[in-house]
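Query form — protein Small ribosomal subunit protein uS4

QUESTION: What is the three-dimensional structure of this chain?
INPUT:
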Amino acid sequence: MGMYIGPKCRLCRRERQKLFLKGQKCMTEKCPVSRRDYPPGMHRDSRYRMSRYAIQLREKQKLKRIYGMRERQFRRYVDLAKKVKGITGDYLLELLERRLDSMLYRGGLASSRDQARQLINHGHVWVNQRRVSIASYLTRPGDVIAFKESARGKKGIQAAVGESDQRSTSSWLERQNGQLRVLDKPKLDELHQDLEMSLIVEFYSR
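ANSWER: The structure tokens for Small ribosomal subunit protein uS4 are given below.
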């Protein structure tokens, strides 16, 4: 299946909760989830008992949509997490948060992961003074993330840096002068995401 290119708010309504896919709009009264907390479609008000498989599927789809990933790419992260000793679900989430697009988003230099991916794909982001145009690049403690010098004059970049002062920064990141330093691994207890990682691991263990 290809990448979903339809309305982002429709995905949030499908999961009946905010997935924060539209940046600032998700924080306002314009958010459709706040006004219509039921799924889209003609049978939106129907109620039915979900099977265990359906519950696992919905949780998996929710996580995929939050991070904007295709199934094959997401499955690779799951397989990688399974190879590590410890709690598979926690390591899976850590891998997803270590992605460069997630770091830009968590650091406040992008209003959404979609915007972060666009900035990265266009070659505007450098890591340790080298251009990185791959959104899935896995960061490490000590990495310094910044916008390319020649791109800082662009309106979009200036807006991103200017708006960053109004956004919070995760504790594992330090933001200063429009750049980020990775201080530590992502702290999962600070993500505040309503996710049941065990259900996702169960789904891929069938």
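ADDITIONAL NOTE: The chain is about 40% helix and 10% strand.
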